[in-house]
Amino acid sequence: MRFLNPTRPAALCLGLSLFTIASTADEPFRPEAGTFPALDQAHSYRGELVFVDHANRRGSIRVQGSGMFFRNDPHPFAMLPYGIVRYHDAPADLRDIPLGTVLHVRAFLPPDPTISAVPVLPVNNKSKDANHNRGTGIAPAENHVLLLEDEPSHCQREGLVWKLKEVDLKNSEGMIVARREPKEGSDENATEESMTFDAATRIWRGRECLLVEDLISEGTWPTSGKKSLDGQTVLLGITWKPTPDGVFTRFHISDIWLDDEAMQRAARNQTETHKAFIRSRWMPAWIDAVEYGKFGRAKVTATLFGGMDESLYADFKKDAPAMMNAVEQTLKHTHGAYGPAHMASQGSILEVTQTTGEVPLGSSGIQIHFETDLIIEGIRPGKVVRVRPTSWPKVQLPREEYLNNGSNMEERFPTPAIFPKY
Length: 422
Fold this sequence. Notes:
Layout lengths: L9 H7 L26 E11 L4 E6 L11 E12 L4 E2 L9 E7 L35 E7 H8 L1 E11 L2 E10 L10 E5 L4 E4 L2 E3 L1 H6 L7 E15 L12 E6 L2 H22 L1 E10 L5 E8 L4 H5 L6 E6 L18 E10 L8 E10 L11 E6 L19 H4 L10
Parallel strand pairs: 3-6, 10-13
Antiparallel strand pairs: 1-2, 1-5, 2-3, 3-4, 5-6, 7-8, 7-12, 8-9, 10-11, 12-13, 14-15, 14-19, 15-18, 16-17, 16-19, 17-18
């Protein structure tokens, strides 16, 4: 069986290809504004998503270490403006990922610690002792994320699958023993992992969503006891839940994709969810250059961020009308008391160009050249913006997703005063 998602954006494939040869950075790395960081400088870790602040593109992960997993404090992280989220091998927003999902992280030091949306830690924090475990720090200073992906996304990108060795079942729940290995061949260094499943585990086959009891009734799995699965190739969705018996770390299987069609359907559904989200929130980009004219006129060159579906980039066409608005590092719209369109610069796209060669992760490799007769303060070289072709719907955003004034820190990081008193 071969797992592959043919709908994956080409820009993402180009950007992620280096991860097959890159290793975790030995030295902490701090990205520079206006430059997409090199992939081989990213620090890698894995853990459970335990908190999400979707409006500010940040959250917390319980980082996996050698100690007792349940005792590890949640570790705050923030998405870089150009950071990419992948769920079910498709583009996603943080709001799409259920709490408890085990995620793979590629992250850097904060580009500018003075405006970090999460705590700034000592650069050597990942090597500090945690929970009395020597050298197993669980709070890396690299908490600004370039790539956040769930298990099937990670496996698809790396060319890996899970090979099931054995199932042990009682009362529609039990344990599966499996190894994560290359799709082709084997890995001598791969270790067996025991994971739990239960009656709520979803099993996907083609267009079907099966339950554990369905596999039992058709004889694929036993009614009770152990059965060899002979290295059956699947993709897994992995979460964490409290475990009995004092187990340090044991993960749980939320989903099993038995074939290629099932995984592609999951990816297609998530892609459509994300496309609708971006069309309502606008495409993020940063400003490469501004050529100022007279009386507020300007020509702006901007690079669109990567990781989106190709159909979204196709909507940016020469001579098409568009709107551009300033946003802060969390991609929240600024300069508008009534939403993103209130103070946005309006104009037309003069030209769309595509970078040739390899595109770094975080970039689409697409530049737009945009002309407006009313440039706003937030559109300056190095700043982050969002852009909307006027073919996309013009909607009003919920209050927590835009700012009246980006310089008001209490508005950027809401205090309890924003909540009504009863």
